[in-house]
Amino acid sequence: MKRTAIYIRVSTQEQALEGFSLAAQTQKLKAYCESQDWQVVDIYADEGISAKDTHRPKLQQLLRDIAAGNIDIVLVYKLDRLTRSVSDLYQLLQLFDKYQVGFKSATEIFDTTTAIGRLFITIVAAMAQWERETIGERVAIGMAQKALEGKRVAAAAPFGYTKNGETLAVNPKEAQIVREIFHRYVNGDGIDRITRWLRTTDARGGIWDNHTVSYLLENPVYIGKIRWGYRSAKSAQETILTDGSHEPIVDLATWQAAQHARSRRKRRSPRAGTGKFPFGGLLWCAKCGASMTGQYNRKYRYYRCNKARLKQCDARMVRADLLETAVVDALQEHIQDAISELTIDLDAQRGQPRDAAKVHESLLARKRRLLDAYELGGVTLDELRARLDRLEADLLAITDTRHTSIDAASDPASIERRTRLIRARASDVRAGWQSFTTAQQRELLQQLIGRIEVLGNDVQITFQDVF
After folding, report:
1. Which of 55, 82, 451, 457 is 20 to 30 A from 441 in CA distance terms?
2. Distances from the Cα of 411 to the Cαs of 262, 351, 405, 416, 417, in angstroms?
3. Which domain of life is it from (predicted)?
4. Beta-carbon neighbour count of residue 215 at 10 Å?
5. What pTM does this model have?
């Protein structure tokens, strides 16, 4: 016999407007437990409390009893009695799953003791992720607006400044070091030399590295600007750069000279393994199994087996441009093949039942009326159990029909649109490849490809299972 915790809740407004009392919920849920032959171990009732969060006395007591191992299943009249927040619901369901406690709504299909119920958890997880991302977008919009107003958004002040409310104040001692960094760089010192010099000073406790110096030299905050979105933006156009309310440390001419020097030095011959090599982490030597990395010679970019560098493999280098062309062609063909395999008979789909939702609601209404009839003495307990079993089977069948047709029969037009979109994307891959940044190329490859094995002109591609 399952040890059942009944959770009931009603806010003051709900009780006043709807008459949805705790007593009414209790009667219906007790009747339901009796029909299922479940043992009611306790009733947890939060009266006059909304479901905006989980900070409710009886709900917290229920969670403690679950952790203590005293509960097998939690029963509510409706899902919104437990919570109205998707993220809170997902966290509660995770806790229930941790302690192997089932969750069921007496008047809805939500039941985590069934396969369909577990699918529901997955859907809730996706909705919770969407909710978190929406909140994150709102925060980002607020931060971007502050940046547009010239206010400092970052929590910490950059070297050379101290925080002063929503703006920055110059730190005279550090500002002098910033000016010296720019002076040395513009006059020919490299990043390595400047870093070594900084480590001899007491600035930042002598803790400096090349990345920190490079970032400082490229940061427009030192000419009085506010920059927002630089690290996360996919393109320079998405970065916000506006006049700040703080005092600049470096004059514009010096800063521009430093940027010109940075650009000029970056154009020099790049080191092996750096530059435009989008296959990082995907490319392997088919002869020895070692990874392959990029390098330049005077004319071409190449990929080379890392063991070949050590004279432990005789596989030859592969020209990067030829390999990219072969992979893009194969990628385009793979997408077209996937479309062919996934395209199904839409006419047959249109024959699937369209009224599953109406049938589902009708069955739930019959279930509620049956419980009401039992409370009024209109049916016996045995009859109630038998009829509930039949209703549960019907509900399970119709729910399964609805879920299995989500991607198929429910909306054939959406599949047609999706197929057209995928075909368009496939035709754009080759045309757009050369205009992509290396980061965009790498992102596309990592989404669609798991592994590329190369030996001379032979290229074997293992695609990700994304279609």
Report:
1. 457
2. 54, 11, 9, 9, 10
3. Bacteria
4. 14
5. 0.33
**Whose structure tokens read 């750096």?**
274
- Transcribe 84-131 into DSSP letters: S-HHHHHHHHHHHHHTT-EEEESSSS-BTTSHHHHHHHHHHHHHHHHH
Q: CA–CA separation, 288 vs 290, rounded Å?
A: 6
Active site residue 232: no
What residues contact 329, with CB distance under 8 A and at least 6 apart? 430
> Rounded CA gap, 306 and 134, in Å?
44
Q: Are 391 and 370 in contact (CB under 8 A)?
A: yes
Sort strands 73-76 and 39-47 into parallel, antiparallel or unpaired.
Answer: unpaired
Tell me which of 11, 21, 245, 291 is the catalytic residue: 11
Give the orientation angle of helix 356-375 with respect to helix 22-36, to 10 degrees: 100
Residues 6 or more apart whose CB falls under 8 angstroms from that of 420 comprise: none
* DSSP conformational letter for 411: -
What are residue 301's DSSP bridge partners?
296
Torsional class of 208: left (φ above 0), alpha (ψ -120 to 50), beta (otherwise): beta
Closest CA to 261 of 194, 171, 200: 194
Q: In what order do the strands lie in the sheet with 39-47?
A: 39-47, 3-10, 73-76, 102-105
DSSP state of 73: E
Q: Specify burial of residue 108 (Cβ count, 10 A radius: 0-12, 13-18, 19+).
A: middle
For residue 250, give every residue at least 6 positions away whose Cβ sits within 8 Å of its Cβ, in sequence order, or none: 178, 179, 182, 222, 223
User: What six digits make up the tokens of 102?
Assistant: 């089932």
Between 252-266 and 172-186, two packed helices, what is the crossing angle to 10 degrees?
50
Q: How many helices (H) and strands (E) does the chain have?
A: 17, 14
Q: What is the CA radius of gyration of the chain?
A: 32
Q: What is the pLDDT along the chain (467 residues), one digit of tens a residue?
A: 899 999 998 875 555 344 457 888 888 899 999 989 999 999 999 887 776 778 889 999 999 999 999 999 999 988 778 887 777 887 888 899 899 999 998 887 777 777 776 666 566 556 655 655 655 555 455 554 554 544 555 557 889 988 877 778 999 999 999 999 999 998 888 888 898 899 888 777 767 888 889 889 988 989 988 776 554 444 444 566 678 788 999 999 999 999 988 887 665 434 434 457 888 788 999 999 998 988 887 778 899 998 888 888 999 999 988 898 888 888 878 777 766 665 554 444 544 545 556 666 776 777 777 776 666 666 677 776 777 777 777 767 666 555 554 444 445 555 565 566 566 556 556 556 666 777 777 777 877 788 999 998 889 998 876 55
Other CB atoms closer than 10 Å to residue 308's CB: what's the count? 18
What are the structure tokens assigned to 462, written together?
């293992």
